[in-house]
Amino acid sequence: MISHLPVRPRHCDAQAMMHATRYYEFFEDAFLDWLGARGGYERLRQEGADLVVKVSGCEHHSPARLGDVLAVESAPARVGSTSITMTFTMRRGGDELVAVGTITYVCVRDGRAAPLPAMLTAPA
């Protein structure tokens, strides 16, 4: 799934470049779009599950700038029994690689790791 997300003034530093901490917000928005295609966060919560971040990382290739519309492709890199690792490939203008993020989410129920619900493991 590809999300198209604009870089707004609040995302930028004084040089009109997106601040390094903001990339994770874009990854999260793209993940919520990916999750939405599978029933959404509300459905996940109705099933008694939630996701917590265990590991996250970002490789920066080219700075995102104020006014850019970034295409963020979300794809599962690894699906385990209780966790899912997502890769977020961020591009500008279709081809220019801006960043690649990875986030591992662990499914929890009642404060403990739990099996991923089918909505996260089934093909979209």
Quickly describe the structure.
This protein has 124 residues and is α+β, with helices and mostly antiparallel strands. The chain has helices at residues 23-36, 40-46, 118-121; strands at 2-6, 50-60, 69-79, 83-92, 96-109, 112-113. Strands 1, 2, 3, 4, 5 and 6 form a six-stranded antiparallel β-sheet that branches.
Question: How would you describe the overall organization of this protein?
Answer:
The protein is built from 3 helices and 6 strands. The mean pLDDT is 95. A hairpin with a 2-residue loop joins strand 5 and strand 6. It has helices at residues 23-36, 40-46, 118-121; strands spanning 2-6, 50-60, 69-79, 83-92, 96-109, 112-113. With 124 residues, it is of the alpha+beta class. The longest helix is centred in the N-terminal third of the chain and has 14 residues, at 23-36. Strands 1, 2, 3, 4, 5 and 6 form a 6-stranded antiparallel β-sheet that branches. Helices cover 20% and strands 43% of the residues.
End-to-end span in angstroms? Answer: 9 Å
* Shape type: elongated
Share in β-strands: 35-45%
Order of helices and strands: EHHEEEEEH
- Share of helix, binned: 10-25%
Class computed from helices, strands and strand pairing: alpha+beta
The biggest beta sheet, please? 6 strands, antiparallel
Q: How large is the count of helical segments?
A: 3
* Rounded average pLDDT: 95
The whole-angstrom Rg is: 15 Å
Number of strands: 6
